[in-house]
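Model the whole thing, not chain by chain.
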Amino acid sequence: MPLFRNIASMIALLPMIVISLTVFVGCIIYSFVYSLTNSKLVPVMNYVGFDQYERLFKQRKWDVAVENIFIYGFVFTIGCLVIGFLLAVLIDQKIRGESLFRTIFLYPYAVCIAAVWQGAGFVMVLMLAGLRGIDEDIWKSLSIEGVAKWKSYLFVILPMLRPMVVTAIVLIAAGVVKVYDLILALTSGGPGYATTTPAMYVMENFFSRANLGQAFAASIIMFISVVCILAPWAFYEFYLRNKYAAN
Amino acid sequence: MGGKMKKFFSILLTLFLPISFTNVSKAAGHMEAEVIHWWTSGGEQAAISQFAEAWQEMGNTWIDTAITGGDNARGTTVNRIIGGNPPTAAQFNISKQFVDLVEQGLLQSLEEVASAEGWRDFIYPPELIETCEFEGEFYCVPVNIHSWQWMWINNDVYKQVGLPVPQTFEEFLAGAPKIQEAGIIPLALGGQGWQESGMFDVVASSIMGFPLMRSVYRDKDIDAFRDGRFESVLNTYRELNQFTDEGSPGRLWNDTTAMVIEGKAAMQVMGDWARGEFAVAGMEAMKDYSCVIPGKEKYVALGGDVFVFPKNDDPKVKDTQLAMASMMVNPTVQAKFNNAKGSLPMRLDVDTSAADACMQMGLDLIQNPDAIMRESDDWNTPAFTAAWGDIISEFRNDPNYTVAQAMDDLEGVLTSGL
């Protein structure tokens, strides 16, 4: 019985499984059910079908929020990956005082470029771990062949780091979707609602606008779009590729 | 900061109370109350202290939970009620903000004390009773009346440029370029949604008058909305916004009032809570600064605050709540509180001899029932007023957003059934 083979680890995992199921799955179901109601200040079971979704897609503010998240996501993801990878390559040159640099890059002080800076440090650590995992023999053969250093990084090493890149993108993308605190601190979504994001739209409707139904509907749409974008890709990267590689 | 410290000390005090004063407090029928509110500016703190002091003089403990920003404070109150840890009392606005709480049976009825003390006989104007009464029972205590209908003007600025103090938005607009040339910001406006839509409604009522506004906000009368006057309100609003400064986005209302106090800006449209800031700065009404109710028809808007008392599992809390409700409407407490707050009391038999020239204007005006103006959120849900405010705010900040487009979007909100 494979299910009971590792009874001890199953028991150890049980609290995590129960919490995940009740908190995450439970809350998603709860949000969806109440997104079909016209709840205002407090959740009430007053079924209105998909009215909240219809209203959501009519909001100019929601359009702006979605547009913003794409711009932010694009700039942020590319910025993090490029800067993070460059930093990792620089550190990989075995320069002096590496540990000092590693600390500085991880604890950013700048406020405005906070997002990219913070994300880049994180990508750097991931990439650096990958770079350190590259076999010395590969570097040796590359230098025997006389391949330029930047070409080696770009065309040989980077493709080998693919799992790291994918992990970084998935984690960064999750950060993009829920961006809230940074915007709130810098602009509060203003002027007007020019810099609002979907997460802000949800929080506003939850807490200040007493419009729970609308907040639930918006959060369900956020959830669905994340699943739609990430699921097929993650499935391909983590499952299908391994399968083909194994064959 | 002040609120936090106060809360810290009150908590400290309650921790030690059972040890040191047990006998005393039992004898005096000692009651403990936690009050959530959003009064954190200088003038506001002075006002809420009047309630706290009156409560403490009765031998009770006041736990002050001050939360910056009305939205945050109301959000906390609702979360705590739903989470099963309700405060004794919580602040809301005179509006529909707390209707859901009444309908879900989450608030304590105050009818016992209201009928015993005859609240229906002395609460003025009677519209306030309407706000608090549900199915014949009182569920909130109106504590003050705050009107948005004011322009706050630095007299020195107008003396400096040699212009008379403006009495209407048209007069203000005529003089604004001259003020700008003198290197002074004509219009001080904090670019937060509530400030932008607050000023919009003042412009609207002064241009189109309250009856038409009521047809739009209450009756959702599209013909009234489309009769041309609303467009001219939007146009005037856009003209006014040429005269703000670039530091406007996100600026707090009291920082904006400070610009007028310091003479960096000429005028701010803001509710009469701004009066408290002028008082704290040591400025005298009509001498150092002017308060003007703009327009030919002058109104007092019926904004302001109420306290609600969430139901509690502990039956003893009800007595505390009724005692506090009774204290809040007490004429002596009302006089002290409203003088500090710069607002009008919710009853006429209150000693207002300490009122300054601005407050006196409001007191005179409110006795005329035709001058009493209701606000949009008296009739509409927070979701409606927020959706409406989004459009006003976007219209102010995006010069490419045309009047015609804004009219269509506003009509969309009017017909949305929110």
